[in-house]
Amino acid sequence: MGSDLKKYNTVIIGGGASGLMCACRLAYNRMTGIAVLERNTKPGKKLLMTGNGRCNVTNDELDISLYNTDDPSVLASVMDKYPVSDTKEFFGQVLGVSLISKGELVYPRTLKGITVLEQMIRYLGSHDVDMITDFHVTKIADGFVINDSIMTDNVVIAGGGASYPKTGSDGSSYKLISSFVSSSDIIPAYPSLVQLNVRETDIRKISGERINSRVTLVIDREEVASETGEMLFTDYGVSGICIMQLSGILNRYRMKGIKTASVVVDMFPDMTPEKLSAEVERRGGKLNGLLLSDIADVVLSRKGDVISNLKSFVLTITGTRDLDSAQVTGGGIKLSSLTEGLMIKSHPGLYVTGEAVNVDGPCGGYNLQWAWSSALSCADDISGRSR
Ligand SMILES: Cc1cc2nc3c(=O)[nH]c(=O)nc-3n(C[C@H](O)[C@H](O)[C@H](O)COP(=O)(O)OP(=O)(O)OC[C@H]3O[C@@H](n4cnc5c(N)ncnc54)[C@H](O)[C@@H]3O)c2cc1C
Q1: Does 144 sit behind a cis peptide bond, omega within 30 degrees of 0 on the bond before it?
Q2: How many A from CA of 364 to the centre of ligand 1?
Q3: How many domains does the chain have?
Q4: Quick one: 266 and 206 in the same domain?
Q5: What would the DSSP string read from start to end of 124-186?
Q6: Span 209-215, mean pLDDT?
Q7: 277 by DSSP, 3-state: which?
């Protein structure tokens, strides 16, 4: 069998954000014998979905403390060494992707994720990196031998997490990793940045309606976090960026064990109760012109004082949507099991990057930035070890 094996220096499993970036950096470092193995017919399926197709590449005001991980100090080392500014420079100077900022959010100038993907693929094509698609990695044997057909000195598991499995990242990263580490090195995957299910059924009547609000997450009667932004009512509960941001926090509390959770929606965060009360009085107790009439009907049909219901519209959380709907996966291989170069400490030459690692952040470019930074760190580590 041995002589039939195709040989590479580095094989990257997964042609998503982190796998492609890792390959680009290896090529930039003049490494040869690089292959990307992607199970789909084309790479970058999830990348094209990001930011509603616009691809929120990173965040100019990135705050490292907002990431969730088991090892904040390794995370800080990686992010300090490969910060937003360096990533933007690599995109601009090396990959030729022109970026623009909208507030703190950074996008390709074209506002299309396809520009990011095309430029990466072009770069790989012009640097002799093999892009092997329709290749589903199911086995990494010691050595490293992949699917009994490829032999390589280094392996990068960049197969993503387990959210939006239809994009190809269906949790197979964890299966591949688990043959090399013990189960205590992997935190089981859970949905992070996900919609919330709620008990109250009255909001089904306003499914599809959006409202600008301040939403506070209350756990065991304590306010633990608030977000302001557009919230969407749905058949099952609530969605929108502000809800997604709170869901990650909720999930982490749930893992520790909680009794009750709710979101309290302030539909008029810009008005004091007194000012709102005067406005409602001016309208003869009606909410016309203040709220969409179907939302107003739901608020007015609730028991209790109208102003309290407008300022503190309570929705009892019964759970979150599952991984199929989550934008990001929490959990994965513990960062504490990896070096700063993202190599599994106990297995020289075996690396894990991107969402497969136990690092997840809020909306706003944080998760792609982790994919880029972890990939850059990994590629430089491989390059350094190979010289
Ligand atoms: C709808 C949506 C919108 C998002 N928007 C943003 C945003 O605007 N900004 C942001 O920062 N983040 C966003 N994210 C999160 C971001 O997309 C991910 O965190 C990021 O793509 C993770 O990169 P990755 O390379 O680790 O994994 P992925 O991008 O998931 O790539 C993994 C790749 O590996 C392949 N693969 C998996 N297993 C195997 C295997 N066994 N063999 C071969 N190939 C395999 C998959 O097919 C896939 O192509 C969004 C996510 C979703 C779902």
Answers
A1: yes
A2: 15
A3: 2
A4: yes
A5: HHHTT-EEE-S-----EETTTEETTTEEEEEEEE----SSSGGGS-SSHHHHHHHTTS-GGGE
A6: 97
A7: helix
Q: What is the pTM of this model?
A: 0.94
In a domain? residue 54 = yes
150 and 9 belong to one structural domain: yes
CA 182 to CA 155: how far, in whole Å? Answer: 18
Among 288, 320, 352, residue at a domain's last position: 320
Q: Final residue of a domain: which of 265, 285, 320?
A: 320
Task: Tell me the pairing of strands 261-266 and 237-239.
Answer: unpaired
Range of the domain at 101: 2-191+330-386
Token pair recorded at residue 166: 């239809």
Q: pLDDT tens, 130-141? A: 999 999 999 999
Residue nearest atom 29 in ligand 1 by C-alpha distance: 16
Asked if residue 30 lies in contact with residue 340, where contact means CB atoms within 8 angstroms, the answer is: no
Residue 370 backbone dihedrals phi, psi, to 5 degrees: -65, -40
> What percent of the chain is modeled with pLDDT above 90?
96
Residue 144's pLDDT band, with cuts at 50, 70 and 90, is very high
**73: its two tokens:** 């100090």
Q: Which of 313, 42, 59, 356 is nearest to 188 (CA)?
A: 356
In this structure, what token pair is assigned to residue 301? 């049909």
Q: Which residue's CA is minimally distant from atom 6 of ligand 1?
A: 50
The partner residues of 343 in beta bridges, in order of sequence, read: 351
- CATH code: domain of residue 173: 3.50.50.60
* Strand partners for 216: 226, 264
Is 163 among the domain residues?
Answer: yes
* Interatomic CA distance for residues 357 and 89, integer angstroms: 24
Q: How far apart are CA 375 and CA 368, in angstroms?
A: 10
- Residue that the structure tokens 């992070």 belong to: 192
Which residue's alpha carbon is nearest to atom 53 within ligand 1?
327
* One domain for residues 344 and 282: no
Degrees (nearest 5) of the Cα angle 384, 385, 387?
70
Do the domain assignments include residue 325?
A: no
Assess whether the C-beta atom of 328 lies below 6 angstroms from ligand 1. Answer: yes
In terms of domains, do 161 and 260 share one?
no
